[in-house]
Amino acid sequence: MKSAQQTALDVQGGTSSALEELERALSVVRERNDELNVFLHVDQDGARALASTIDERVARGEYVGPLAGVPIAIKDNLCQVGIPTTCSSRILEGWRPPYNATVIDRLITAGAVPIGKTNLDEFAMGSSTENSAFGPTRNPLDPTRVPGGSSGGSAAAVAADMTPISLGSDTGGSIRQPAALCGLIGMKPTYGLVSRYGLIAFASSLDQIGPFAKNAMDAALLLEVIAGHDPMDSTSLPEPSPSLATHVNSGVVGQRVGLVRELIEGADEDVESAVVRARSALEEAGAKVVELSIPEFRLGLSAYYLIAPAEASSNLARFDGVRYGNRVDAEDVTAMMEATRTAGFGAEVKRRIMLGTYALSAGYFDAYYGQALKVRTQMIAAFRRAYEQVDLLLGATTPSVAFEFGSKTSNPMSMYLSDVFTIPTNLAGEPAVSVPFGTGEAGLPIGVQLLGPARSEGRLFAAARVLEIADGRP
Questions:
Q1: Strands across the sheet with 185-188, in order?
Q2: Coil, helix or strand for 112?
């Protein structure tokens, strides 16, 4: 499949049409979706109507936007008017939002064509997309293995050439981890850079929407489109979208990069080897790489699995069978709510709600949730000290390549450890990008991770491009 950048140029220049690009994407969806279970809903009629409008505007000589006619897949926790939005949960099955998420409006304004909603771990809680109420998504590179999670459907859509770009959300690594397992670029932006209005919340202080793409330029173009201040989101940064695409080819000459020991600890040998080779590639491109230790990172997993479930237990309280979503009738309101939530939520969501409710309960709040917030403050301070010494950090994205279905589902802790290298960034609210770099077991892709201080997305994309070139990617 063509890149998003080339697709937009072709559509705007008249050498292709938005309808042609859309039909090409839909043909791949028809061919592979039954096997991979990527899309939960495909909006063929709406996408065709939008593509036709784009072609009419191009024919009139109008500039449509930087993503003119580019098909895009949307994670099914982002609201889109009239389109089923389920968070892969039975409790929201069939619900159609009355409004668009801000990122959807910005995509359409930029000329993109959303084609449907992709599968995810229920309410974005998981690392393999095995927790979906509508069945797992399979990795297009090896359908016996997981695509990662929670944004596994969005990653698989791009990896399977269904769309050149897609949107996911990242709470503890849910963009970067599936990007690594599917061989893609995946960016978790600075907290507040992208509006969360219309994103169905998991953990509000951690969630952030971001791009999947096959190359750094496409990811930068997509992030440029969706970023920028939104008055509908009280946590939105009060500044316009940054210029990112212009930085992609800036290189890393003079950049100081810290190879973080804790971001490769426990990784498979082939993953660690890829990070070492990435270090060499950055040095050959003109960066100075030093080794760093940030021991606070070892506390990230424990703090995250108190903070995120606590916020989830609060956010998911609204799904009670009264205001919206599915309802299981019972003899009184209390019994109805219990029956609705018992039937509507899957096992992992119930596990995290119970963990979070316990952590917030009287007598345990200070010992658990309060303590986790103190650890988070330490993590933020540790990042700040690191960025006084270096411009960027380097490590692994995941401890291994894509794992087989069922290999971690019986042991939640084993599954949680899939995000051990990505969680620190979410706790600090800072950006990071996963870049495919080499292969490991069974020839499957390995992702290396670049981390930066707040608002350093341009610098991260430049470093990502250096690694792409070193890895032989066009």
A1: 39-42, 113-118, 71-75, 165-169, 209-213, 185-188, 432-439, 445-451, 392-396, 256-260, 288-292
A2: coil
Convert the pLDDT of each residue in 70-129 to its tens digit: 999 999 999 999 999 999 999 999 999 999 999 999 999 999 999 999 999 999 999 999
Q: Which domain holds residue 193?
A: 4-247
pTM score of the predicted model: 0.97
List residues with catalytic annotation: 75, 150, 174
* Composition of the chain by helix, strand, coil, percent to 5: 45, 15, 40
Number of domains in the chain: 1
* Cα 321 to Cα 339: distance, rounded to the nearest angstrom: 9
CA distances from 465 to 70, 256, 398, 435, 462 (A): 22, 16, 20, 9, 5
**DSSP code of 248?**
T
Q: Is residue 424 part of a domain?
A: no
How many of the other CB atoms lie within 10 Å of CB of 118?
34
Q: Is residue 50 part of a domain?
A: yes
- Is the CB of residue 397 less than 8 Å from the CB of residue 177? yes
Residue 456 lies in a domain: no
Flag whether 429 is in a domain.
no
Looking at residue 408, its amino acid is K
